[in-house]
From TrEMBL:
Taxonomic source organism: Magnetospirillum gryphiswaldense (strain DSM 6361 / JCM 21280 / NBRC 15271 / MSR-1)
Keyword entries, A-Z: Coiled coil, Membrane, Transmembrane, Transmembrane helix
Main subcellular location: membrane
The protein's name in its UniProt record: Peptidase family M50
Record's keyword annotation contains Coiled coil: yes
Transmembrane portions of the chain: 148-166, 178-197, 209-227, 247-268, 347-372, 378-397, 418-436
Gene Ontology CC annotations of this record: membrane
């Protein structure tokens, strides 16, 4: 820029006194009414602009040094001129100035694809110009900012919270009951009303302080609608308290609604009115505290943080410091610091920048997943890639390009070795197939289980085993007595003896001879009854039906008691078996015979096992409910016709403990780690992406 003559300032620019900085230095606010932009300038820049009419840097410098205690040089004045030119605050009264404006305009133009991406990710639709209407209606709502109403709202808040605390179970139950189509619709309507009040809070507060409110409308962030109000003129306010009130008026409006709605919920009887009060209270509490107060996005919390901390442009300044700190930590380039701040503020800005980046990474990944699921699949994939590319890949790539510009200095430095080693190690971790373990939820249970009942009512003589004893098939478990059966046996023995005597005396007694056939038939019947009774008495010895371990002995049964045939005496468990449910992507990595290690929940010691069978068809319903999320497990599942249907494709595996003696008394839930084919994280990610693409394209 020519140092001999300075270009003219635009005549419509206005300068307002700004807040005093933490160091006591004054500031001013420069307003461009055409673009409705505001610029914070310091004392030297204000003195330079105040003498801009002198037209020459030398004259301005002389006047400043004569009239003030400041010392400036011509480079400072030219720097202000560069700032004015970049911000388009100068008159275009020469061919060179016109060419400069045209070049700025051309640099701001973008391709149709870039324009589409910008307007898909964020755009605004102004709906109304409310300034005049706000001025006419402001007297009607001014009482909302009175001291009396504020105290009444605070009292309503305290009483409402007290009533909610006393009825907390009812409040939380109502919250759960609202998770339905009708409840979600009510939440949507309440949220819309709360947001209208939120924006009116900003608008009326700004208007009360004399600011102009040019537009109100709807902004779309990734096609998600959000109301907005243009209160940029709040930057004209000199008092920080006034700016804080304008920035926090929306949150205060929502909290006011929440306070009175909470009080109404606590006082009203059950019915429609109480349900509406609950919906308003829950919606405004969540919207105000969880969303609007966050300083990580450019919502109210961000602007409140800037005014509270007196740190204008908090995001770009903290980002610049964090990027500088990262480069210095990695490469030690010795570049000048973007700005000098007190040590605690400097560290706080860097930590804040990393917090914003982490928050936005999680948020944008979540938005990308939602976009993928809620749009037509092909469109969803494209929009997902746009989200990741624009919000995640682009900033990383921009920083890598900055590193490329500094490549000679980076190579010349000694500190480059360990960042390269870390980078190479990270790449190796991504590329080298080092992960050979597959983890899956599993349940350890008995392979066979049998309850032992007495065959009929009898007296328990003795139990020959106890819980934990290992027995073989045919071993005696318990002995019983049946006094009635013993009495019947004695009677039958006497009857058989008498019939045999009668049959042997047929040659000596004509009566016995006449009844010989009848006597023989009665003898056979008595002998059959005695044999059946003997078999029945043999059953008074309870034998193990299989090899197993004794368990579930009844502590209420003692020798000498009568035992009911419907009451189990004890149980037998045979062998242990593991059932695991593996994700579809991990099934090809597993083989029958592979080793595994099962760790029950809440225990440190595990159990060695071996894979014995792998299903090749995904399960359609879980046979073990304890592994499903509704019952405390890890497999996402839902109820469908009284069946637990997995929300993801899982395959069942069966495993056998290496130690045959491992037989759990009750089923044990846990995690099983199995030896599988090795794979790299990068290959796993690429296969997952390819699987999604193939599935959504129907290939």
């Amino acid at each position: 820029m020519d140092a001999a003559a300075l270009p003219l300032l635009r005549e419509e620019l206005a300068v307002y006194p700004g807040p005093v900085g933490r160091d006591g230095a004054p500031s001013w606010t420069l307003h461009d009414p055409l673009s409705n932009r505001f610029f914070r300038i310091g004392w030297p820049a204000f003195e330079i602009l105040s003498r801009w009419h002198l037209g020459e840097p030398a004259a301005i410098r002389t006047a400043i040094e004569t009239d003030t205690v400041l010392e400036v040089d011509e480079d400072d004045i030219l720097g202000v001129a560069e700032f004015l030119a970049r911000s388009q605050l100068l008159k275009a009264d020469s061919p060179g100035a016109v060419d400069r404006l045209l070049s700025i305009h051309q640099s701001g133009k973008s391709s149709w694809l870039t324009w589409l991406l910008h307007h898909y990710l964020f755009f605004r639709v102004p709906l109304v110009r409310p300034d005049a209407w706000l001025g006419r209606t402001l007297p009607w709502v001014r009482w909302l900012g009175s001291r009396g109403f504020r105290l009444a709202t605070l009292l309503a808040l305290l009483v409402g919270l007290l009533l909610i605390g006393r009825q907390w179970q009812s409040f939380t139950a109502t919250f759960v009951d609202h998770f339905s189509i009708t409840g979600l619709a009510a939440f949507g309507i309440a949220l819309g009303l709360a947001k209208i009040c939120h924006e009116l809070g900003h608008a009326y507060t700004a208007k009360a302080f004399g600011c102009r409110v040019p537009t109100m409308g709807v902004a779309f962030l990734v096609l998600w609608p959000m109301l907005y109000t243009d209160v940029n003129e709040a930057w004209k306010l000199n008092a920080r308290r006034q700016r804080l009130l304008v920035g926090g008026a929306g949150i205060l409006a929502e909290l006011t609604i929440a306070a009175w709605a909470s009080l109404a919920w606590g006082l009203l009887p059950d019915g429609t009115a109480r349900s509406m009060a609950f919906t308003l209270a829950a919606t405004t509490w969540i919207s105000s505290l969880a969303i609007n107060l966050s300083p990580f996005m450019r919502f109210d919390g961000y602007f409140l943080a800037m005014d509270t901390l007196d740190q204008p442009n908090l995001h770009p300044r903290s980002f610049a410091l964090a990027r500088w700190h990262l480069r210095e930590t990695l490469f030690g380039l010795g570049e000048p610091m973007p700005e000098h701040l007190p040590p605690r503020t400097h560290l706080g800005m860097i930590v804040f920048a990393w917090g914003v980046w982490l928050y936005r990474l999680i948020l944008f990944l979540g938005i990308a997943v939602l976009v993928y699921h809620f749009f037509i699949k092909l469109v969803g994939i494209i929009l997902f890639m746009v989200e990741i590319g624009w919000f995640v890949v682009k900033p990383v790539w921009a920083e890598i390009r900055e590193w490329k510009k500094r490549l000679p200095a980076i190579r010349a430095g000694r500190r480059v070795r360990w960042p390269l080693a870390v980078l190479l190690g990270g790449l190796l971790l991504l590329v080298v197939p080092w992960n050979g373990k597959v983890t899956a939820p599993a349940l350890l249970k008995a392979q066979e289980y049998s309850l032992i009942y007495v065959p009929f009512g009898a007296v328990l003589r003795e139990v020959t085993v106890k819980d934990g004893d290992r027995v073989e098939a045919g071993a005696v478990l318990a002995r019983l007595d049946n006094p009635d059966a013993e009495h019947r046996r004695q009677q039958l023995d006497s009857r058989v003896a008498a019939l045999r005597y009668e049959l042997s005396a047929t040659g000596m007694d004509s009566d016995f001879r006449a009844r010989s056939q009848s006597i023989a038939e009665e003898l056979r019947t008595a002998q059959a009854e005695r044999a059946a009774l003997a078999n029945e008495q043999d059953r008074l010895e309870l034998l193990a039906p299989m090899d197993g371990i004794v368990t579930d002995s009844s502590p209420l049964v003692q020798p000498g008691q009568w035992i009911n045939q419907r009451e189990p005496l004890l149980g037998l468990r045979q062998g242990g078996v593991l059932e695991a449910y593996v994700a579809e992507e991990d099934v090809p990595r597993l083989r029958v015979g592979a080793s595994a290690y099962f760790i029950p929940d809440g225990r440190d010691a595990g159990i060695d096992a071996t894979i014995t069978a792998i299903d090749r068809v995904a399960v359609t319903a879980l046979t073990e409910p304890s592994l499903a999320v509704p019952y405390g497990g890890t497999i996402p599942a839902r109820f469908d016709h009284n069946n637990l249907v997995p929300d993801v494709a899982v395959y069942r595996l069966r495993l056998k403990p290496v130690d045959d003696r491992v037989v759990p008394p009750v089923p044990l839930r846990g995690q099983v780690r199995m030896d599988g084919d090795y794979r790299s994280p990068l290959g796993h990610g690429l296969r997952a992406i390819a699987a999604v693409l193939l599935r959504e394209w129907g290939l």
